[in-house]
Write a structure and sequence with these properties.
The complex is a heterodimer of chains A (476) and B (307). With 476 residues, chain A is of the alpha/beta class. In chain A, 48% of the residues lie in helices and 12% in strands. The radius of gyration of chain A is 26 Å and the shape is globular. Chain B folds into two domains: 59 residues, no CATH class; 220 residues, MetI-like (MetI-like fold, Orthogonal Bundle). Chain B has a two-stranded antiparallel sheet with strand order 1-2. The chains are: A alpha/beta (476), B mainly alpha (307). Chains A and B meet through helix 1, helix 3, helix 4, helix 16 and helix 17 of A and helix 2 and helix 12 of B.
Chain lengths: 476, 307
Amino acid sequence: MKMNILLKRVSAIVLTAAMVAGITACATTTTATTTAAETTGAAVTTAKATTADTTAAAKAGKVYFLNFKPEQDAAYQAIAKQYTESTGIPVTVVTAASGTYEQTLMSEIAKTDAPTIFQINGPVGYASWKDYCADLSGSEIYGHLTDKSLAITDGTGVYGIPFAIEGYGIIYNNAIMTKYFATTAPKATSMDQINNFATLKAVVEDMQSKAKELGIKGVFSSTSLASGEDWRWQTHLLNVPLYYEFKDNKIDLGSADGTKTIKFQNSANFQNIFDLYLNNSVTKPALLGTVSVNDSMAEFALGQSAMVQNGNWAYGQISTVAGNTVKPEDVKFMPIYTGMTGEESQGLCIGTENYFCINNKAPAEDQKASLDFLTWLYTSAEGKAAVVSQLGFIAPFDTFSDTEKPTDPLAQDMLAWSSKTGITSVAWNFTIFPSQTFKDNVGAALLTYAQGQMTWDEVSKLVVDQWAAEKANTAS
Amino acid sequence: MMLVLIVGEVKRCKSHSPTIFSGGKHMQKTLKKYFPIFVIPTLLAFTIAFIIPFIMGVYLSFAKFTTVTNSTWVGLDNYIKIFTINNDFINALWFTVKFTFVSVITVNVIAFILAKLLTRGIKGTNLFRTIFFMPNLIGGIVLGYIWQILINGILLNFGVTLTFDPKYGFWGLVFLMNWQMIGYMMVIYIAGLQNISEDLLEAASIDGASSWQLLRKITLPLIASSITICTFLTLSNSFKLFDQNLALTGGAPQRQTTMLALDIYDTFYGRTGYQGVGQAKAVIFFILVGLIAYVQLRVSRSREVES
């Protein structure tokens, strides 16, 4: 008995101590934040004092930008600092950890000091956040948008403005390709000849059989199918057959009715290219369930593979791999050929899933400050220089001249592809894919197919069924 | 019989020590006086960090919302959707139950055996105890990724990976859970075992009890409170497992190794407008965990004896 009482007392004391410690810890952090806020407040006041003559009447707002892309965090921080120094408007940039943007946004936007600028990924993202998106139709930045059809609209309002155009396709290592063209009896002798699936398949299979000679482990980098690492297939690759389906059936992508169901009529084309990826790869198909995108990009960077499907954003990844053997001038793009008729004139998949929105629940002066910040970033000389050189964005605004484009090889090659005559780019229709659950389920099915536990017919059926089910689930 | 009487006598003598008695009374008075000072901060923190979010959480399970400050009441809609949209929740529940059943047994049996071995005074006891306890200090996500690499490294020799078959994921999770929890449970069992008086065991063996009888009739009843704590901890931890599940398999293949907590997470973030359904699943999850823990505590408490 005595022991018990003593134990209880001790544990009570320990618990209390822990709680008190916890509270103190909380208190400390709160103080820290307050101090920081005060400091920034002070900075603002001083800054305002200096520019008092010009902005005497107007109440200066503040900007809080919740950034989606971790790889650009440092660049944004520098830009924010630069803007604050020149205007006195405080700009806070917070970056969500990779893959947690929705979670971070959900909790951040419920706070008193909510983000004033946030990002959505297209119509599906808009459906989720429409209560928070301010109408930007009258804004200066919207006026500068070169292709107005790219913006997210609802009725007469404009709620999301794209700020970076991106493209994906098959990235290849030109040095290895040149080596292949010099081997005995190659199936093609230049990249220009590879302009449809039949040729691509012949070349790839021949390269795979000459893998030793070419010094590669496989033609394609591993088809990353680990959970959360399968977006290159369940989103980007799936876009290609569906783009043709929507185009050939003249589906109006803006109408909810038109996209309630899909036929997946080009399922065989998806299988064509997917099988080619699986069978001529660095990794055996059964072992793909643990491969990540980073692994694939590293294989390419180390010269273990000659090709990998990804977008222009991947250049940073390729160039920073330790022991990288690929020269910048050898990193090139080609379109994803799947065996569609007339695909000789198909280009890269070019579009955007990066839109910024202004939080309509933020105070009016903050909304204005946020728009001013974005206008500065995409129209002023300093802003544009930062976009091109630091962020590396291909910005879709008419304020950017042809010389103001990023210089990395993939961005350059993408621009070259999009200006080729007689070549039509594939649009990014995956922004209307029903939900993350749909994509995850398709990705899981692709893995099961790769492991040989599901037939292609079952995968096709699952794509069609899941599309309908998820469209129905997210309607209402 | 004799033995029990003697022990009872000893105990009674001890607890009637007069000094301690009066000291306790005085202490209680002081405690009463300072009660608010000690309790109010805790109570406030508990209300802010637990009670308010909990009430909000229950409310949100009846609402459609994107952010917690902006919701509309939809009644039982979310609860109906859990069972009508697909079987994910039931599948996850079934998988979780199987996992919990296996890991509660394995963790406790192995932890007890280790505790027995490490209370025999073999050389290096402290070193072994420390080593067995260490995995418990590593976070679940890290452990999940480490074991994913290790298990895949072994499976690779057979030309498969963890995602190949749900049974690999299942046993992988059980193994991981064991590796992480055994050390902690072992420490609790060691404490229990050390509390058993040597005299008791010695007397019993002099009376001719076999080692099995010693274990069955003396050791186990006397460490019943440790068993209660350990089964409670393993049961609730297994049922609520999330990090390890997310890191080791992420539910692959095809959500067949998704446990309840991961399923709730997937529902919450997987689909526009389904935050409320995820919340409703979380409320059911809470009730389930509460029920199981209550029943388990009642059952094992009833087996405890005062020593």
